[in-house]
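Let us work through a complete example step by step.
Step 1: write down the sequence.
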Amino acid sequence: MLTGIYRADFEPTLPAEPHPVLDDLAVDLVAASSSLAGLMHPMVRGGVGDLVRSMNCYYSNLIEGHNTVPRDIERALAAEYSTDNPRKRDHQREAVAHIEVQRLIDLGHDDLSSPVSTEYLTWLHREFCKRLPEDLLWVENPETGERVRVVPGEIRERGAAVGIHVPPVGPELMESLARFERAYNAPMTKLRRILAIPAAHHRMLWIHPFLDGNGRVARLMSHSMFRRLGIGSSLWSVSRGLARSVTEYKRLLMAADAPRENDYDGRESLSERALRDFCEFFLRTCIDQVMFMQSVLDPANLLPRMELYCRDEAHAGRLAAGAFAVLREAVLTGEVERGRVASLVQLQERAARNVTAQLIQRRLLVSDGHKSPLRLGFPVEAVERWFPALYPSF
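Step 2: predict the structure and record it as tokens.
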């Protein structure tokens, strides 16, 4: 028989103050994120943002048990969907849905309300689910076998069970959402706002407001909270870290559902110790991912890998010999004027135009028009070489 707290009371909403370990982690995350942003030219960050959205989508799908490989995601973004495998095609469309919603967040085109508001959560759910194929909008009750359609943006009206936890339903669910918004929108220091992100991540999953898609919404909500705090989560992906430690992630989520153990475990309904443990894990995971991206994006590490890639491709006859000089310029200066390519590759203008065309055709360089400056591109086949360990081997 399922047991658990079945009411709107999910206190504590934050670990008690003071907590030096969590405060230090919040400070370290801000510093690491700032250092990462300073590594690259602002013009390069846009391309990295596209790469990270795909990475975030891949790992978020993996947490949900859907292994849509990066090459299939890249094909889907080019509207090249599987024609002989309906399930793969559905998961490709799911990947595109995630990327499109995260792009809205990254560009500031998301809902204007607070990321912890019911309005924003329903916006996230609606925007994601309305892009899904019909087959992915149905869930099955494991006890009755009944199939129920998920309505995009609709708050759950029936009961649910998450492990041994029974989330609130009906008026208690709406009360929980209102309490959630009040708690995480309350005035607090920036350090506490950073700490509120993992805490809200768990408490939103505890409330479980939607029939399906709650994990996806929680991760997108966390991404939006980081962005609005100015902590550049468009350049790194916490989902990569959560997916790589998915067993621990889910264990700590479940542990934080538990009631208070004793008088040394806070004074509220749920375990403060377990919430603190989850927040520490989440923040450490964020810092680890920022440091990972810093290591792969640092020009001192990136440029030698790009040079080796260009050398190998030139040796195989797939890339012009002077290609690396153009790509290096794009990394260091953010963009390359087309008229400058000839001097970089030390060729006549006509031959230099062929080099430019080849780099664009390979999507190693991108631009906004046939006369616009060139920026660095991140096709999957190059990402495999430029950013080792970004994805598992595929």
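Step 3: interpret the result. The chain is about 55% helix and 5% strand.
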